[in-house]
Design goal:
- The protein is α+β, with helices and mostly antiparallel strands and 196 residues long.
- The chain has two domains: 88 residues, no CATH class; 80 residues, no CATH class.
- The protein is 52% helix and 13% strand.
- It has eight helices and five strands.
- A five-stranded mixed β-sheet has the order 1-2-3-4-5, with helices on one face.
- The longest helix is centred in the middle third of the chain and has 34 residues.
Length: 196
């Protein structure tokens, strides 16, 4: 028998009060914390390590034990997050319908197009790296063989980096492999199988 215990259930069974927050505020605080990195281990400590050394039983014991070891952590984290909340408040005041429309257009039109056509950019850059050779996307018959395009006359298969560690997914592809990894502001592309 499988039973789900929600966070509210766990709080109830551990006799921990659930704080009430106005609608949307925790989402904004979470976003501010992600940007400010207020609760990272360098600020509040490595919780998984700390809890291993805790010998108390209650939430109150944990709070006392933790604050003895990290007396400034809560204040420091709070200050970092609050500074970012204020930055978000300033940013929210700058958002108008024109900006929202521009953002939605960029997401729905531009980024979707880029996501569907990034292979073309990878092939173009590879051709540039090799020294100005031509490139082209694969046709349907070539795609059915796992080929995504050509750099010069070299067949290229473009795969996410995770493809390397999933041997059960691998098909036999008679092409040079180019691997990519999504990073914060684009793609990191490994051309080592093509460019020496």
């Amino acid at each position: 028998m499988k039973i789900k215990l929600t966070n509210d259930d766990i709080r109830k069974y551990l006799d921990i009060e659930t704080p009430e927050f106005p609608k949307y505020t925790t989402q904004l605080i979470n976003l501010a914390n992600q940007n400010a990195q207020g609760t990272r281990p360098r600020v509040v400590g490595q919780m998984s390590d700390l809890i291993q050394h805790f010998t108390g039983k209650t939430r109150e014991d944990w709070e006392k034990w933790y604050l003895e070891r990290k007396p400034d952590a809560i204040r420091t984290a709070t200050e970092k997050v609050l500074r970012m909340v204020n930055n978000l408040r300033d940013a929210i005041d700058k958002i108008d319908s024109r900006m929202v429309e521009q953002w939605v257009t960029d997401l729905v039109v531009v980024k979707t197009f880029m996501g569907l056509r990034f292979q073309e950019a990878i092939l173009k850059k590879g051709a540039e790296l090799i020294g100005g050779v031509g490139w082209r996307l694969a046709d349907e018959a070539e795609e059915s063989k796992g080929i995504d395009g050509y750099i010069g006359d070299i067949p290229i298969s473009i795969k996410p980096e995770t493809y390397k560690i999933k041997p059960t997914l691998r098909e036999e592809i008679r092409a040079k492999m180019v691997y990519y990894r999504k990073v914060k502001n684009g793609l990191e592309v490994d051309y080592s199988g093509v460019v020496s």
